[in-house]
Amino acid sequence: MTQTLSRETEGTQIPATPTRSALALAVSDYRVLIGRNIKHITRNPEMLIQAVSLPIVLLLLFRFMFGGAINLPGMAYIDYLVPGLVVVSIGFNSTSTVVGVAADLTNGLVERFRSMPMAGSAVLVGHVVSGVLRSVISLVVMVAVGLAIGFRPGGGVLGWLGAVGLLVLFAAGVFWLATLLGTIAKTIEGASGLGMILVFIPYATSALVPTASMPGVLRVIVDNQPVTVLIDAARALMNGLPLGSTGWLALAWWVPITVLAAWFTVRKYHQRAAV
Description:
Structural class: mainly alpha
Number of domains: 1
Number of helices: 10
Distance between the termini: 23 Å
Largest sheet: 2 strands, antiparallel
Helix content: over 70%
């Protein structure tokens, strides 16, 4: 972040050197800010506990307390449950990102970054990438615990790679939305409240129960919302079931959502930082 190349920051021009491009300098800034947020994870036991313990608690709770009351033709409930709970845990983990972005904007850290010749979006990218890494940790933990209590997915290697790819795309979209909420929030307390939006959205899906038992209007809404489509695609890929059109629909929803969320977040961040 301290290199000298032609970069515009706060209306000044930094002298250029022929050795490194603007893109290389921006990537270096992203790497530094990603490392900053990863260190926050490793040095903050509460964040690690949240990322690891929540998947275990939810999985054991639904598997042993509610699983006996749900009968699915041709599929064990645990095989149905694990992909949905991965998505639920991603939404839950996004709350710390909302609060973290709001804290950076309100405690003076961003003002210090603005005095440096660095890419402004690096702050946001650092939060998003560290959030996706927390989600990957949750995924690994949940699958490991699921295998210990009866999860027996029938999907092959390609199916699992496809499912993980969709879940990483979903996590990227969710964490960009989380950073957007963080830039909107005026206070850290307000950011905590806004983060609950992302916590509850995955519950209004097919994550925990099939939609066939839902009332007509609610079922239509749930079946056609973007999170349900992604869960159904990931579940089919993990369990070796027919994918149908859910894979393409998941991509059609979440690629634009991620791109638009990133664009609006960067725009809002620069507006906040300029005040």
